[in-house]
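SusD/RagB family nutrient-binding outer membrane lipoprotein
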Amino acid sequence: MDKKRFSQRILLAGAASLMLAAQSCTGMYEEWNTNPHQATEDMMDRDDLSTGSFFVQMLKNVFTVEQLSADGTGIGADTYQVVDNLTGQSFAGYTGACNIWFGNSNFLTYNMTVEWRDVAWERAFVGVMSPWKEIYDKAREERPQVAAVATIVKILAMSRATDTYGPLPYTRFGNGELYNAYDSQEDIYNSFFDELNEAISVLYDFYTKDASALVLEDYDFVYRGNVANWVKFANTLKLRLAMRIVYVDEGKAKQMAEEAVAHPLGVMTASTDVASLKHDTDFSYRHPLFVIGPGEFTDARMGATMDSYMNGYNDPRISSYFRLSSDGYRGIRTGIDMNRESYAMSSDFSDLATGSDAELIWMNPAEAYFLRAEGAIRGWAMDGTAEELYEQGVRVSFELLGASGADNYLADDTSTPAPYTDPVNSGNSIGAGSPLLGTITIKWDEAADFEEKLERIITQKWIAIYPDGQEAWSEFRRTAYPKIFPVVVNNSGGLIDTETQVCRVPFPSTEYRDNAQNVAAAVSLLGGEDNGGTPLWWDKK
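Tokens:
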């Protein structure tokens, strides 16, 4: 992480909190001159800027992209690093860090560092909720299809936020109150489903009247205004959120999931359905994973858990995710006693393979197949058997990455995750027979019990959705699969259980400073203390 960049982001955060208060109090969106993700006066002079510029701002902040500010400084990757890499990707075992922020007492070693706790909150509310409110207020009456697409993007972003923190000031946002009260996570999820159902209905009605009609095509760098794609994406997001609540409300989970799959346009199935930010002459960016990895920061390498699973499975997709080191594909374990020079300078660990011009993927159709496979083992109507859907999920993942050998891979009934060796410090290694190693094989076994089938599905989904660490971390918390290596150093003071692993990020310090009464009430909605060891509402397996 670039310290100058992070200091600049902290300064912007102060301005952001002032702007957020103004949004809540007056409904006006203040100009934030120093934020490259903010609509500028020049942008406002273009056609349809009353909604288009705000939509672009939303797109930039679901996952923060790396762009250049007016003075040529890169901005965005530092936010992505804290929110998506040092949180989701690290907690999910995807990547390993080779830096020692705050003297190695940080999120990676379960000290829920105050400076990092605010970043996801700022991105969600300033980067997504504020521009969404502008779009919704301007478009809901005359152009409901525009409001519908913006709402789908908002739900994607805010589902990630609530799955990070828990309760949020969601449904009351922008209603004229200076400081908003929080909603329980259950109420937030219920709102997600209601909003998604309405958005899907509006867009499908728009589509049936003219299937060729586009929405925000000049500003939509995901689907270029293709309404059918947005409906499929919304249905897939609905399916994802339905599965998330299966252990707290199985009836509603089943209903929402079956509705999503049965919709006339259905869920994502093909490579053309991939939701990703496209590079364009009007929208250029560097992939933030490249910046924080080999491109600039050099702070991230392959994760040890990925090392174990992908090497153990001889997975052909490994070269799409990581680069060969001097000793094959080797990862770094999260939460270790680290000397930066020993790890960052070592040629033994694999760099990330993500290129600067790679598209930042929001969701791919392989995930939809694995969600349906899980629904099938639960007895839900998913338009296919669990085996068919599981195998198609793997095949689609291979296809998307240009990997060959899917049939041989799916026939493998012996390979299991490999032991892990840390070439710098053997104390971090995990040997054969360790209970920390996964044992699940690849080939589908119809005779297996429910939990074995579930572990097999979630493990392959975990591999297929890389590098979406937030989603992988959420699914690990929900199912306890795959077997992610625990930290070696736990600096939580007993608040986070090493075996269970981290459950959430505590509320931001800015909320305790500016919204103390409401955040205190929000803590009571958690059902536990405001720390990283308190499970979220849906984490009840």
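Strands lie at 67-68, 74-75, 95-97, 275-277, 300-302, 360-363.
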